[in-house]
Specification:
The longest helix has 40 residues, at 131-170. The chain contains four helices and no strands. It has one domain. The chain has helices spanning 5-40, 44-79, 84-118, 131-170. By secondary structure, the protein is mainly alpha-helical.
Length: 191
Amino acid sequence: MKGSGRLEAPALVLHLLALCLALGPALFFGAVVAPASFRVLPTRDLAASLQGPILERLCWLLEGGFALLLATSWFLSRRWSAPRAVSALLTRAPILGVIGAVVIEKLLIPPIEKIRAEAPGLIDNLPAADPGRLLLARYHRLATAFFSVEIAAAALILLVTARLLLLRRAAPGAPAAARPPAPRLLDLSDV
């Protein structure tokens, strides 16, 4: 891989930025935005109407972040001659993250929005046994599960990257040239 040595540092920076992109917004949405909107807004329908567009754009960020993680993980694992298991984790976890984001964006958000649009009023006012309300709850649980898988995939990539960096740092490098002894200009040891 001639010439890829100078690409190693930018690839690592891109890798770490993509990790921030895959982990940061997802944790912020799950820990801050979602609970706060349900707590502050008067109905669950208003909170859900706010979160739908935010979650869709978050999926776009996650898809891009995980795609970049896939590219940088592949490059870095080849460049650093990572063990096979580490290389497999680094290249397969981003695929899992992309799949999770696509499933939420394309397969779960549209039916949730459709159920909300077709509801005869506020979802909160429907009986607990209403089929639309039950289906909405099921889709919500699925979206939460896939969202958790995305966060777990990003955390796994972070841990494997940290381990790989530690292994790389601990590996012995090229032997350094022995330093010549410093000349003694003023030797007063015999006095």
